[in-house]
Amino acid sequence: MRAATEYRKHAEECRRLAQQMVAPEDKLALEELAETWEMLWKLHERELVAEDRQIKKEAAPQRRPREEPPSNVPFPHRSPHGRDIKSYRSFAVSAR
């Protein structure tokens, strides 16, 4: 983080110096230098964010792969007879 802060400060200083310059070529050179420092700053920030994500990803508990139920076990939404539970319940209630 320290390097990113220094890059940003260098960019700000180059922009400040560019405003003080009289010669257009000096202003242009300092503006280009400021853009380079700014590019380094942003690149470093992105790398830090990527490193943080990687660290968090490695520190997070790993999920176990989802296990598929055995094919001979009925799905939870099905009755033992293969009917949909909602229709099965309505059938059972109306049969009483």
Describe the fold and architecture.
The protein is mostly helical and 96 residues long. It has a domain at 2-59. 69% of the residues lie in helices and 0% in strands. It is built from three helices and no strands. It has helices at 2-20, 24-59, 85-95. The longest helix is centred in the middle third of the chain and has 36 residues, at 24-59. The protein is rod-shaped.
Helix content: 55-70%
DSSP strand content: under 5%
Number of helices: 3
Which descriptor suits the 3D outline? Answer: rod-shaped
Radius of gyration: 32 Å
Show unreliable segments: none
Number of strands: 0
Q: What structural category do the secondary elements indicate?
A: mainly alpha
What is the end-to-end distance?
Answer: 73 Å
Largest sheet: none
Order of secondary-structure elements: HHH
User: What is the average per-residue confidence, as pLDDT, rounded to a whole number?
Assistant: 77
Layout of strands and helices, then pairs:
Blueprint: H1 2-20, H2 24-59, H3 85-95
Summarize the structure.
With 96 residues, the chain is mostly helical. It has helices spanning 2-20, 24-59, 85-95.
Main features:
96 residues, 3 helices, rod-shaped, mainly alpha, 69% helix
